[in-house]
Amino acid sequence: MKIKIRIAKPEDAGKIVAINKIGWLTTYVNQENGITKADILSKNFNRQKAWRESIQNHKRESHFWIAECDGKIIGYISAKKDKEYNELGIYILPKFQSMGIGGRLIKKAFKWLGEEKKIRISVVGYNAKAINFYSKHGFIKIKNENHKLPSGKNLPTIMMIK
Length: 162
Ligand SMILES: CC(C)(COP(=O)(O)OP(=O)(O)OC[C@H]1O[C@@H](n2cnc3c(N)ncnc32)[C@H](O)[C@@H]1OP(=O)(O)O)[C@@H](O)C(=O)NCCC(=O)NCCS
Known about the structure:
alpha+beta
């Protein structure tokens, strides 16, 4: 299996949106914490146009990379330069997780973001895989927070900083 990392193109927006939605459904639906599929689907995933525009205008403020396996997009990372902190978003399709692809993507983002500002991410408290992943890449837990879904439920989150 050959995994290729490349810079995203505007026409990848549809696939990025689909991976983001699959990622939310497979990672955050959680009986123990009372988060149902309907809670996750209350969020607006239909943001293809916005993604397309950000990819088109990337370079200075934001940048996106794609992971491909045999020509199919299987994951992405977004990196954003912001006022106080820089930010990241990363999703890999379940079948391709824990194979080192996230590690390859995050290194691209670290290099592009540089070290001028700290990077802040918000990770769901019961998402142990991602918490381990970020810890391994130097992030530390700062504080507990909540992410309110449009359904009214709260996703317990942790702010991590590197
Ligand atoms: C979190 C995520 C981006 C990590 O990418 P990945 O390609 O799976 O991670 P890697 O293979 O590079 O693994 C790196 C580290 O992550 C952690 N990790 C990976 N899989 C894990 C698992 N099944 N259980 C616990 N920790 C795990 C480990 O610390 C691992 O280090 P190791 O390889 O030395 O054991 C990916 O799993 C993913 O997309 N998850 C679903 C969406 C998500 O949670 N996104 C982050 C939102 S904040």
